[in-house]
UniProtKB/TrEMBL annotation:
<dbReference type="InterPro" id="IPR012337">
    <property type="entry name" value="RNaseH-like_sf"/>
</dbReference>
<dbReference type="Pfam" id="PF04857">
    <property type="entry name" value="CAF1"/>
</dbReference>
<dbReference type="GO" id="GO:0000175">
    <property type="term" value="F:3'-5'-RNA exonuclease activity"/>
</dbReference>
<dbReference type="InterPro" id="IPR036397">
    <property type="entry name" value="RNaseH_sf"/>
</dbReference>
<dbReference type="GO" id="GO:0003723">
    <property type="term" value="F:RNA binding"/>
</dbReference>
<protein>
    <submittedName>
        <fullName>Uncharacterized protein</fullName>
    </submittedName>
</protein>
<dbReference type="InterPro" id="IPR006941">
    <property type="entry name" value="RNase_CAF1"/>
</dbReference>
<comment type="similarity">
    <text>Belongs to the CAF1 family.</text>
</comment>
<dbReference type="InterPro" id="IPR051181">
    <property type="entry name" value="CAF1_poly(A)_ribonucleases"/>
</dbReference>
Length: 136
């Protein structure tokens, strides 16, 4: 069963109720594409052993995902710490995605985004932008 939610507070309330009153149910958080939570999926388990097995599998999947994200985040941190130039081609979409997935939620406007992006990637050279400047 899926329970649609519109706020993180609803998610917390659903999780509290499921844990407190329903031992045989396991909640699964379904993330929304833009961040946050889209729904809570509730899975019925037939025994305590099944519930424990499912929870262990979910924890293993979460740990694996965390290792992947941490691994790429370490690459970003190494690039940032090196203070070396990052050369790219037409990369605004790429940097927007990388920033949103591995650094922080996107700021509310472009100026804040550029300022924050420069704190992570201090020297970005976009070849497309440079070529436009040379075509004066």
């Amino acid at each position: 069963m899926n329970i649609d939610v519109s706020t993180e507070r609803q998610v917390q309330l659903i999780l509290e109720i499921l844990v407190e009153f329903f031992e045989e149910l396991v909640p699964l958080i379904i993330p929304a594409k833009g961040g946050g939570t889209q729904a809570v999926r509730v899975v019925l388990t037939s025994s305590k052993e099944d519930k424990n097995l499912l929870e262990r599998e979910l924890q293993n999947l979460e740990d694996e995902q965390s290792r992947r994200v941490r691994g790429f985040r370490e690459v970003i941190d190494l690039i940032s710490a090196s203070q070396k130039p990052t050369v790219s081609h037409n990369s605004l979409n790429d940097f927007t995605f990388i920033y949103n997935m591995f650094v922080a939620p996107l700021p509310s406007n472009v100026d804040e985004f550029i300022c924050s992006l420069r704190s992570v990637f201090p020297h970005i050279f976009d070849v497309t932008h440079l070529m436009k400047e040379l075509e004066l």
